[in-house]
């Protein structure tokens, strides 16, 4: 695929020596990077302090006495009601929710995008436009009608129901991404396959899928982040045995009365964000490449 | 592990009770003392041979309530759920989604044992009882820092008027006279407390209960609105948001006082402060011997399964039993819903509350008189008043009358 | 599109049948969820539904109440401030950063990761952290004063006039990296020939970026715009975690108004009326644009 090679920097020719220009560029980037890192720094530092130390003072000061107690507590001891086994309780549930939801939603959205880009039929763009407007509707509005729909489908409280919900609400943005991506693939490929008599599904699986790894990476990153961080759907459409990690996070952080254990809160938030963070660190490069390949020509 | 052994032992002792059911109970009690209190219920219920399956969701109204309502309307209800009693659950009952506890209540004579009676009345819809009240929280308290007044060189006030008089001295000593967290519900709580204490319980009942605009425009409320404006002046300069941060300032002597419900005691207790020595609590702002009866209650969704139904009844009985009432309320820092139990372990402030409950005036909480809608509108109005020094008392009065009219 | 005409045309309905079958999930989602639920919401906005939806019609009462409610008016005003600030700053900063990153710099991966990581965190986390950093007694203000700058005052979260800017700072922290990556990806897609040509013509770099490159980035800008704007309209979690609408009601936003009305006030009808207004506003802005962008154009 042509676009795959386009991942090198494309700016004007670089100058080698340390120049005023370079100082400006790196200076700006370093200042911005610091601004971005400060909150993470505060989170990490706080999570390593004891409560008395936090009460006394400066949130930027490094811990006088490093303690991993808050991390242990957040992961395995923090209570939500009577269950004092911390975040670990929800971790596997989050995995069980995220994996099928990500797969199903991306599969469906990619087929949508493919049909919209390559097999336009009358009315297709209308449905697409409706999806685009749907991207702007606050989820809260959909909460109760969704309860009714799931009840009528007999899916209320099940994992399948929750996967359906994530698929539906992820559809607008994902379909947009896939549609734009498939539209940039050269028409010749498609036409040649048509002449050979390959059908809708044949072209999708044999030609389009192998070419669309970059955009799949983008979709996976977006969906994992969104679904892993979701709290509202996970708690409204399932039962306690499926509650994701964010429910425990909410219970730890959102407690309204009593002492706030800021260090445990911070450790819990970092732990909860770890999975999407790791995915970003690992695949950040693919992410840029994928969007570069997918969203440029439109 | 240990718990399971005990549980197994109890089950064995009872000899496999006839109805051993797992009941899922949802609630929003997640803080330390709250969880400890819930654990008392769970322990007592597990001892009957059934099993309490805990479904705690933090964030009282905003998060937990939509979950509960969705589960109930979605046809996958939990076996029991916490709700503030009052008007909040009424629609669920009217839609036939909740079961009546009338048979249990009349068989066990709840109407005789629950004190004050008003707290059970708010569970009653069309003559049948639909919920178990489990505790009483009074909102109408003023908490004072003895330290702060000592620093300012004035005596610790015995009532609101003395407190107001001490305001300038506190300011001079660099102490914030009054703190009220800048969240809507806290502003509303302060207003209710002022109305019930300054205008008096009778006016309070007429205003919130009868929604009587003439009383709102009357002389008693005139005094209450003036006190409200004074309270705003005394909070000027404070930007505390959370109620427990405000309490912390009182504990540290940075602030003179705070108007807050009796759950503030928990914060003083954690800071190892002693009532009467380090801090002073004044029910009804020290002007009137009143407590309000807000509180929590459990509702039981209608489930078509005789074994679950039987277990639900069992749970209701456990919750109102004297032993569970004492154990639960001591941990929670609230007052029991029955007058026939003995709370020797209660501290000075809670004792004041219990005395008033027995001998003084008991007023209903506004949850029992206003719809949640009106209650939140009132809260928004009050927080605006506290935040905008330019907002006049007349404006508040007019908007307040609108809210009451809309609700009646 | 040209391809659809290649196949035979026995019946209109069956033409391109596989594509239609494949699009069924999308069609159902569009019709049932987005159109159906929206209509349901509109219908119930004319009722006095409380905790549960009820067909107790009261005409325009909910709308009259909505538009006389200061909290709602403040919400709209805040959304405008938030939206304009977010769009302007996230695009300008995002674009400048993308241009800097495009200068064949070293450690690009490190910088990119740093700028992008907040996007992986949930809004709840962002809200809590920035609540701290902007807390005058704990965060930036106290540190600056600690350095001896006693008069330094920066406490947006406690000042109702500028509280929305405190929210914007947090939202920019979370979102700008993503905008930057999208635009950077766009820049990477631009043909080298363009750079050569402009250099030969002696056009300064900044002019090339502004007048040649930006117009070429239109498609990626559109994608970014959709994602950013959808996020702006739906902003809820961040505000709840960071300010919870305070101080007072000065940082309320429409999505929060809807949620609070529906679940705290147990006044579904009012919540539905507010969401209907949001829906209509979005539709008025989006439909003409979506038509031009996605509907009217034929590509081949």
From TrEMBL, chain B:
Its main location: periplasm. InterPro entries: Bact_solute-bd_prot1, SBP. PROSITE patterns: PROKAR_LIPOPROTEIN. Residues 1-20 form the signal peptide. Gene3D superfamilies: Periplasmic binding protein-like II. GO terms for cellular component: periplasmic space. It comes from the Bacteria. Keywords: Signal, Transport. It is found in: Periplasm. Part of a binding-protein-dependent transport system for a sugar. Belongs to the bacterial solute-binding protein 1 family. This is Probable sugar-binding periplasmic protein. The lineage of its organism: Bacteria, Pseudomonadati, Pseudomonadota, Alphaproteobacteria, Rhodobacterales.
UniProtKB/TrEMBL annotation, chain C:
The chain crosses the membrane at residues 21-43, 79-101, 113-133, 162-187, 208-233, 272-292. The keyword Cell membrane applies. GO terms for cellular component: plasma membrane. It is a multi-pass membrane protein. It is found in: Cell membrane. It holds the Pfam family BPD_transp_1. Gene3D superfamilies: MetI-like (1.10.3720.10). This is Sugar ABC transporter permease. GO terms for biological process: transmembrane transport. Signal peptide: none annotated. Belongs to the binding-protein-dependent transport system permease family. Its main location: membrane. It comes from Paracoccus caeni. Keywords: Cell membrane, Membrane, Transmembrane, Transmembrane helix, Transport. InterPro entries: ABC_transporter_permease, MetI-like, MetI-like_sf. Residues 76-291 form the ABC transmembrane type-1 domain.
